[in-house]
Design brief:
The complex is a heterodimer. Chain A is an alpha/beta fold. Helices cover 37% and strands 25% of the residues of chain A. Chain A has helices spanning 3-8, 56-62, 93-99, 114-125, 131-144, 148-151, 164-176, 194-207, 220-226, 244-249, 254-260, and strands spanning 16-27, 30-41, 45-49, 73-81, 84-85, 100-103, 182-186, 212-216, 229-234, 237-243. Chain A is globular. The two termini of chain A are 18 Å apart. Chain B has three domains: 3-187, no CATH class; 195-225; 237-486, Orthogonal Bundle (MetI-like fold), CATH 1.10.3720.10. Chain B contains 17 helices and two strands. Chain B has a two-stranded antiparallel sheet. Chain B is flat and about 85 Å long. Bound molecules: adenosine-5'-diphosphate (ADP) and magnesium ion (MG). Adenosine-5'-diphosphate (ADP) binds at residues 27, 32, 50, 52-58, 70 of chain A.
Chain lengths: 265, 490
């Protein structure tokens, strides 16, 4: 890894999109996230790194209340999206998830056509008044997913028939179609080969111009390549959070240093 | 020697073989089990199996084949003239068997010596009275041909039995000696036993398949007899089911098929929505506590014998429907004549099928990957939108398969329709009328006291075979669909 480029990475400070305050998460009796405070900026890629089982996915799923779907999961603390508490009673988690989109570890296109996959969210939320508008949304989303050119001639083909990398970009296009403000990605490249990974990483960098992106990754090279801010989790604690360049070249906490140099993992 | 002793001898030999085989293997290794190719007990199993399995197999085959062989030989001895006018060779042969059986008993009870039984002739003694004394009652006097045939029958049986004992014992001891002599520390007993286990498993599997083939063949045979006596066009394309004893019965399957399909249709109308919704609730909405309590409960429902559902139809649902629709009922209409009707049977059969549909659908819905649901929920869909637009379409082929399996059970169901549907074969669209089904007619045609060789009885086999083909077709289709769907996610 080239330290010089990391240090030179341009970072303009953006407004805070998501602020988490004293967040604790419990699965039944087990305490999965301990007093996490973090501020995620708009139009920035934030990477969550850390050894597996340290709670990266759990914390990510708090940000769009996907943890609500797990019976035993309890979330304490405040998470503010644009200053509003998303765990407030008045917030409808279903609406929230349209605003905070999610891309999963394994590409999970629905067993429907490519078109219907992308149109799924807009249809549910009534984003298009007519077919022409829907067509437009689908095309725009597929372009943002950097997959339009590959599928424009076969929008009726099943989404499950695409290659792994194409499927994942389709899933990103699907998430983008509901006009989210934040995109959460949980190890989006771990099921992909290196070429597909490179394509998705490039896409993530483009997405930064519109969205706030949070990406969980177990690959430190990937975190270094795509992110501006990095958070290091260990055993449910947020150990260190800062500029990516800073974390990778000059970590403050000895645990971060050990992880980055490969001594804990 | 009675067969049971022979089996006991084989078992004893096998047990001895196990210990001696094991001991010999250990001895060849100088008492050190580590020098053996296989664990010591494998040598034991090898000797035990080699002495037991071939012998018991020959014993079983012999026991099955001997009666057939003797029957053949003895019936060949009876001249055509000895068969009375209004009788058949089969009836004479059953006399022969009874006389032979009687003679055996007489010898056993000491009324006759072996030699006397062999030389007995109908001229010198009243055989009928003699056999009556040992409890074998005969319809008429024993004719000389029958007595001779019976004596030949006994003779062949005894010879056969002796031969069997000798052959089986020889085989067992031979196997024992051969396996024992092979036992040596380098002998690969473990591999041989492995092959033996494989053979055993194959045998079990082929037995199940062969039985099915046997059942189908026997049905085919009787069906062929039926079509020899009755025209197949009437059976398949006629419009009336009216068996009688005058010999001009109309035996068409169509009215019965109509009743069967109508009742099954109503049953599915009840079972599919309720079962499916129950499955969706259990797999998508219910908390673990509810699920762990409700699922076994539903499965218990599936274990209730259908005769109990039949009683429910007869005693509860039928009268309740009659209380609504029959003369003097709550609705003041007179649409129903009695308690039995298509609706009665259909409703109860539907209830019976609910757990069947729900447990199959539950499995299928659970097989839809969680990632699908997460994807949909993550896009801001509600639970029911997710179920409707993602889970159900993904599970649909499997659910169609489950419905087809349920349909095939409904078509083959007997007890509920016997007790709830009535016995009148007709084409009618009114669900409050009595109708009858293929299965009920099979029961009533076979349990009547008509001659077995008449078309009125044999039609049961044609009906059964049609039913078999129908349900087999449905099952094959259902399994094909379900399997195709499973592949999608593997
Ligand atoms: N659905 C769940 N039920 C119970 N415990 C869970 C569940 N999901 C995660 N956990 C536990 O929470 C901890 C954090 O898991 P996770 O967030 O998946 O870690 P990571 O994504 O960093 O590998 C682990 O100890 C894990 O066992
Ligand atoms: Mg994870």
């Amino acid at each position: 890894m080239n330290d010089m480029t990391l240090m030179e990475k341009t970072v303009d400070t953006q407004k805070i999109k998501i602020a988490a305050k004293d967040v604790n998460v419990y699965y039944g009796d087990s305490h999965a996230i301990k007093d996490v405070n973090v501020e995620i900026e708009d139009k920035t890629v934030t990477a969550f790194i850390g050894p597996s089982g340290c709670g990266k996915s759990t914390f990510l799923r708090c940000l769009n209340r996907m943890n609500d779907t797990i019976d035993i999961c309890k979330v304490k603390g405040d998470i503010l999206l644009d200053g509003e508490d998303i765990y407030d009673k008045r917030v409808d988690p279903v609406q929230l998830r349209a605003k905070v989109g999610m891309v999963f570890q394994k590409p999970n296109p629905f067993p429907k056509s490519i078109y219907d996959n992308v149109a799924y969210g807009p249809r549910i939320h009534g984003l298009a008044k007519n077919k022409a508008e829907l067509d437009e949304i689908v095309e725009k989303s597929l372009r943002r997913g950097a997959i339009w050119d590959e599928v424009k001639d076969r929008l009726d083909a099943p989404g499950t028939g695409l290659s792994g990398g194409q499927q994942q970009r389709l899933c990103i296009a699907r998430a983008v179609a509901t006009e989210p403000e934040v995109l959460l990605m949980d190890e989006p490249c771990s099921a992909l080969d290196p070429i597909a990974t490179a394509q998705v990483e490039e896409l993530i960098d483009e997405l930064r111009s519109r969205y706030s992106v949070v990406i969980v990754t177990h690959s430190m090279q990937q975190a270094a390549r795509v992110s501006q801010k990095t958070a290091f989790f260990h055993l449910g604690n947020l150990v260190e959070f800062g500029l990516t360049g800073q974390i990778f070249t000059n970590p403050e906490d000895p645990r971060t240093e050990s992880y980055i140099t490969g001594r804990i993992g | 020697m009675p067969t049971i002793w022979l089996v006991a001898l084989l078992l004893a030999l096998a047990a001895a073989g196990f210990y001696w085989g094991r001991a010999r293997a250990l001895r060849t290794a100088g008492g050190d089990a580590k020098d053996l190719h296989s664990l010591p007990s494998y040598y034991g199993y090898h000797v035990a199996l080699t002495s037991f399995v071939p012998a018991i197999a020959v014993l079983a085959i012999w026991l099955l084949a001997q009666p057939l062989f003797i029957e053949n030989r003895v019936s060949g001895m009876i001249p055509a003239a000895a068969v009375p006018e209004n009788s058949t060779l089969g009836l004479v042969m059953s006399d022969v068997r009874r006389v032979a059986e009687g003679l055996d008993l007489a010898v056993e009870q000491g009324l006759l010596t072996r030699a006397e039984a062999r030389d007995l002739s109908s001229g010198s003694q009243d055989v009928r009275a003699l056999l009556g004394e040992v409890g074998v009652a005969l319809g008429n006097d024993v004719r000389p041909e029958v007595l001779t045939a019976a004596q030949a029958f006994r003779n062949l049986s005894n010879t056969g039995k002796t031969a069997m004992s000798v052959v089986v014992a020889l085989l067992a001891f031979g196997g024992f000696a051969w396996a024992y002599s092979k036992t040596h520390k380098d002998f690969r007993a473990r591999n041989v036993v492995e092959r033996g286990v494989l053979a055993l498993l194959i045998l079990a599997a082929s037995l199940a398949i062969l039985t099915t083939v046997g059942i189908v063949l026997s049905m085919l045979f009787e069906t062929k007899n039926f079509f020899g006596l009755h025209s197949w066009t009437d059976f398949f394309f006629g419009s009336t089911w009216a068996p009688n004893f005058r010999g001009d019965s109309e035996l068409s399957i169509l009215p019965l098929l109509w009743g069967t399909l109508y009742i099954s249709f109503i049953a599915l109308l009840v079972a599919v929505p309720v079962g499916l919704f129950a499955a969706i609730y259990l797999s998508e909405y219910a908390s673990n506590a509810v699920r762990s309590f409700a699922k076994p409960l539903l499965e218990i429902l599936a274990g209730i014998p259908t005769i109990v559902y039949g009683l429910f139809a007869l005693l509860t649902v039928g009268p309740a429907l009659a209380g609504l629709f029959a003369k003097g009922g709550l609705l003041g209409v007179e649409w129903m004549a009695g308690a039995t009707s298509v609706l009665t049977a259909g409703l109860v059969m539907g209830i019976m099928l609910i757990p069947f549909v729900s447990s199959l659908s539950d499995d299928i819905i659970n097989a839809v990957p969680q990632a699908m649901r997460d994807g949909s929920l993550g896009l801001g869909a509600t639970k029911s939108e997710t179920v409707r637009q993602v889970v159900m379409p993904a599970a649909l082929p499997g659910i169609v398969g489950a419905v087809l399996l349920a349909a095939s059970r409904a078509i083959g169901e007997t007890m509920i329709v016997v007790m709830g549907a009535g016995a009148i074969a007709k084409f009618s669209g009114n669900p409050l009328e009595s109708m009858t089904t293929i299965t009920t007619r099979i029961v009533s045609q076979l349990t009547g006291d008509t001659d077995f060789a008449s078309p009125e009885t044999l039609v049961a086999f044609a009906l059964g075979l049609t039913l078999f083909v129908l349900t087999l077709g449905l099952n094959v289709l259902a399994l094909y669909i379900v399997r195709k769907y499973r592949e999608q996610y593997e």
